[in-house]
Design a protein that fits this description.
homodimer; 428 residues; alpha/beta; Carbamate kinase; 2 domains; 6-stranded antiparallel beta sheet; 14 helices; 36% helix
Chain lengths: 428, 428
């Protein structure tokens, strides 16, 4: 990627919380930017997160109040951390003789809708960025924050600074959006848990997005979605690694290379899963129930659907995050008491985990699903549910068996084997 | 004061750092405001400081960078604390069912000049406050911050939130500006050091301002100046004391009461003083030297001036804060080396303290000065310098004798005696 950049390239650089957790680290980052600036790369925008655990501290303050805090006040409190980082980063750059200017959301007119806590950016006035560049100034933008049409502060939700960076990159038609973080890039599985997990050098947007949704904490789904929509290459790299060493590049060039090919890219595990089994509902009742889940923000995943013909009723199982299971239980218990639900029944099972295989062209190749089931069966690991799509196959297993399941699947589907060999093994 | 207020009264309430140092305390304050609101007082504006030592923590971050930080970045970093307090206070009010809205400087167009770090407020758009009140909403304003004409963040310097409150009160033509703090009000001397120090129930603006300048940490000079200029009554009170109990009222009504009367109100002590004695300078050279002091921000105080006739040269002594003495020394040493300064000489004396008697009509009554000198002489305390004005008499004594000097002067000039008796004692 980096060899394609010129002095005229527009680069948005986002630095995450651990990267700016101390003044020393901020200074180190300033030195990196100064080197780039002095080498002639002057069209840089810096986006910063809050220092280390600062946002958590601020969230803690809001939680210490008696009741849940209102969304507008919440946004005002939790967005303060990025302001501090922006001021410090601009100051550090100036100390290295690089002209720099800190910007808050309202100063760049980072306009969002009014969904406090998870607002979406609608527009950014990039003329101020251009003005900075014309004067040789590096703009340093406080991430995570925006303003709505009333001029009220909003925040962009989890991974908000990544979203700020990607959106700025989109509006600037940037050549690169760098996500500088505390790991070298995106891995094929969690390297702390899975032996042989390896750094993924390139990813296409769709796979990267799926990995982000499934909880890879490195990239955030919206950042990837914006990158995909505006075709902005995204690099995930270690803030303090040597220049142009290891990193993950997310761009649109990958897909072409493995067109019509099955490509298993990575594995992810979520150990906080419950399974809900519902029986004795009509289709209409089922639809009403799921509508209620949506309304309280429950994310229903891995749905398996079975029609019991003679009763004209449906049996459905689905997985939910343990964070949501109490909401689900409340709704189910309330439903059961209503007239017309006499034959309705439900079971919730706990201590489950969701292991997901992520890649491209997975639906077209049922051999991968077969291989997955075979691998787990050989290890005597029961699969409670399974669902697959073009980009992922997710299965529910016992929580205590998740790590070994992940290791086995990584060994079989990713590590050191070409996809062709995997497929052959299944076919034989 | 409080019995004069009606439901239509406009009140600006400022809460200081120790008052909002925890979420619990913020909640307590919200409950106070809620009681007032429910009793019908709805034209309230709340101004908040940063929580506890938060601004110090932020200043510490700026100081941790290698070199002094640029002023604009500094302001962006150190103003973040008030934003957090404003959000939390608005949230706490809402939890008590009081409609509230947090405001940052740019949202109220608190416009200042561009003197980062000690900007002066030029204007505030109070229409947003009126709009809030029309809807029954309490505005909660982040103190200490402003924006300049370029839209850049500025801060108002030491005591900045008091300045925000007083200026808002001025623009709103408020009936009262409350400074809610961690002491019951302004005392006749530091109650931790001087026995018999008492709460001053009323003060006129001039005396209050002089006390603020001389280092009473409760009120800040600019806040008092704004109050005086726009004739806004200021109340200093303990945030968590019972309503309408003890407090200090600063207003213009006091002066009338003691017109033509000597009124010794309080004593203050500054233990970080050096005395500088200059000899062998022409008037022109002296003026140039003082001009240099001004340029580097040295505050020269208590000047005593002696003309040595035969030489057409002047001897001058003055006191400076120990914080400034190094700057003074540097300038004096550099000056001594210049041509035309061969007979110039200087001495700097350390370990001194400045004890000041503050009151009204002091110049008219030299008896107070006489009493002061007599009291100190009887206790064998040498007075190194003395200067007096309408509102204060300051004298330099040895640092080690400052506390006893203060106690003796408090006993003689303030405690339990009418001014008349003091004067008689001197006259006899």
């Amino acid at each position: 990627m980096y060899h394609q950049l010129s002095k005229q390239s527009v680069i948005v650089q986002k630095y995450g919380g651990t990267s700016v957790e101390s003044v020393e680290k901020i200074h180190k980052i300033a030195q990196r930017i100064a080197r780039q600036y002095q080498s002639g790369m002057k069209k840089i925008v810096v986006v910063v997160s809050a220092m280390g655990k600062e946002t958590n501290r601020l969230v803690g303050l809001t939680e210490a109040l008696n009741d849940p805090i209102d969304a507008a006040s919440y946004d005002m409190v939790v967005s303060a951390g990025e302001q501090v980082s922006a001021g410090l980063m601009a100051a550090a750059l100036k100390q290295d003789n690089i002209p720099a200017k800190p910007f808050l959301a309202h100063q760049l007119a980072i306009c969002t809708d009014s969904t406090h806590g998870s607002a979406q950016i609608k527009s950014i006035n990039i003329s101020k960025i251009s003005e900075c560049w014309q004067q040789g100034i590096i703009p340093v933008v406080a991430g995570f924050q925006g303003i709505d049409t009333l001029g009220e502060l909003t925040t962009l939700g989890r991974g908000g600074s990544d979203t700020t960076a990607a959106t700025l990159a989109a509006f600037l038609n940037a050549d690169l959006c760098e996500i500088n973080t505390d790991v070298e890039g995106v891995y094929s599985a969690d390297p702390n848990r899975v032996k042989g997990a390896r750094l993924l050098k390139v990813l296409d947007y769709q796979v990267a997005r799926e990995m982000a949704i499934l909880g890879s904490r490195v990239l955030h789904p919206r950042c990837v979605e914006i990158g995909a929509k505006y075709n902005i290459p995204i690099v995930v790299r270690d803030t303090f690694s040597q220049e142009q060493r290891d990193y993950t590049l997310v761009h649109s060039g990958v897909k072409q290379a493995c067109k019509n090919n099955v490509q298993v890219t990575s594995l992810s595990v979520d150990k906080n899963i419950a399974r809900v089994v519902l029986a004795g509902l009509t289709s209409k009742q089922m639809a009403e129930l799921f509508d209620q889940f949506v309304k309280v923000g429950v994310n229903v995943d891995v749905i398996v659907h079975e029609r019991v013909e003679e009763e004209e009723r449906t049996q459905v199982s689905f997985s939910v995050s343990m964070l949501d299971q109490l909401k689900v239980l409340t709704i189910l218990e309330r439903t059961k008491l209503q007239p017309g639900y006499s034959v309705f029944n439900f079971v919730i099972e706990y201590e489950l985990a969701k292991v997901s295989v992520i890649g491209s062209g997975l639906l077209a190749q049922s051999a991968i699903t077969a291989q997955l089931l075979q691998t787990l069966e050989q290890a005597d690991i029961e699969v409670y549910m399974l669902s697959s799509s073009e980009v992922k196959i997710s299965c529910l297993v016992l929580k205590e068996e998740a790590t070994i399941a992940c290791q086995l699947l990584h060994d079989d589907l990713i590590k050191g084997r070409s996809n062709k060999r995997v497929i052959r093994a299944v076919a034989s």
